[in-house]
Amino acid sequence: MLHHAWLICGPAGIGKATLAFRLARLLLNAENPDSSQARRIAAGTHGDLLEISRAVDEKKGRLRGEITAADVRPVQTFLHHTATEGGWRVVIVDGAEYLNRFAANALLKILEEPPPRCVLLLTTSSPGALLPTIRSRCRMLTLSALSDADMRAALPGISADVLARAHGSPGRALFLSQDRDGAIASFVAEILAGQVRGSETMALSERIAREAEGFALLCDLLGEGLADRARSAARRGDLAKADLAARQCSELDTLRRQTEGFNLDKAQAIRQAAELASGS
């Protein structure tokens, strides 16, 4: 018998949501992409499939920072209705780590008493962020990073340098490739080496802030660099430097969340990120 809840885990960009929708198509008899079922799934109008994810904040024009109880509430009604096509009902919760406390508790009640012939597919890059009681009620399916050969086959137009930094994640490779001239990666390298001068920081921060994903990309690369610095220092036994790098990484994450969550000045935030990360 098919278990009623699955937790699909893996790094960002590895294809967790793609797999969840693939499984949904299998359950809903929509394997043929030309079928009416498949077309309804693609259009988001299939009566036996419900997707829950972070909604767009219309005032800020970006995804909200959490999934709320109001977002989860329709699941209860959906699962207690008869399947429109007499088969399975499928719920996909994409980005389950974003469930706030109230949303997580609402989902937990559904996982504890699931109706028959329903499947919940939860995706997450951070399984540790979920309630242990949610994890315990799900079968875990962990996606591994793609091999170098698979990455080259999937993304033939992406440079070898970007593929190497993507760590086997196609989505991350596409994200990193937005730094088309490598200016953001070079800026991050200079920050980590403590070589950035004030006038350069001012000009580059303004340029990066104007790019659609510039701020997010800088924070991602800078956070990765600080995490590598912390791991390297810990392996050498330099616990003081490892602790400093770990704290810098945490402060950078807080700065990113606050800047994106409150729509703060990204250029100013980039200068703050450069300042906090350049100290060693």
TrEMBL record:
Domain of life: Bacteria
UniProt KW Transferase keyword: yes
An example Gene Ontology molecular-function term: DNA-directed DNA polymerase activity
UniProt keyword terms in alphabetical order: Nucleotidyltransferase, Transferase
GO CC entries: DNA polymerase III complex
SUPFAM superfamilies for this protein: P-loop containing nucleoside triphosphate hydrolases (SSF52540)
Biological process according to GO: DNA-templated DNA replication
InterPro entries, per database record: DNA_Rep/Repair_Clamp_Loader, P-loop_NTPase
One Pfam family per UniProt: DNA_pol3_delta2
Gene3D superfamilies, sorted: P-loop containing nucleotide triphosphate hydrolases (3.40.50.300)
Keyword Nucleotidyltransferase: yes
EC primary class: transferase
EC code(s) of this entry: 2.7.7.7
The protein's name: DNA polymerase III delta prime subunit DnaC
Species of provenance: Gluconobacter oxydans (strain 621H) (Gluconobacter suboxydans)
